[in-house]
């Protein structure tokens, strides 16, 4: 399964995708261009399915940054922990059990020509990046402590 995007945000120490960026020439919206929103949902699902078993920095939300014409939007996709297993066919809920669903919430627009809009948008993106940095540092710290534990336990075995 492949989803094509224009750009993506990747971690510096943990080589994982943390946001995808899509630039289109058309306007967004259900009434004007529902296929744009369908495409974005398909990109999110593909992203979740393709890296669900490989992530070191687990996510329960995904960020899509979209630009169309002069506006920028953020779409935050959230899902329950069992959603990736459901997508991969590893979870078969019984009758009467609620299915896990992806929800996507749009924020924006931020108008590109507006200095105050761009300042606010930059602060939102910076906040997101800082949250990701904290998550990546936690992963690095866990990895370092587990490798030290392995090294000290192997030293103990060699003596």
Tags for this entry?
3 helices; about 160 residues; alpha+beta; five-stranded mixed sheet; disordered C terminus; flat
Can you describe what's shown?
- This protein has 159 residues and is of the alpha+beta class.
- It has one domain (5-153).
- The protein is built from three helices and five strands.
- It has helices at residues 34-51, 83-87, 115-158; strands at residues 7-10, 17-24, 61-68, 71-78, 103-111.
- A five-stranded mixed β-sheet has the order 1-2-3-4-5, sandwiched between helices.
- The longest helix is centred in the last third of the chain and has 44 residues, at 115-158.
Secondary-structure map with pairings?
Elements: E1 7-10, E2 17-24, H1 34-51, E3 61-68, E4 71-78, H2 83-87, E5 103-111, H3 115-158
Parallel strand pairs: 2-3
Antiparallel strand pairs: 1-2, 3-4, 4-5
Organism: Penicillium roqueforti (strain FM164)
Protein name: Genomic scaffold, ProqFM164S03
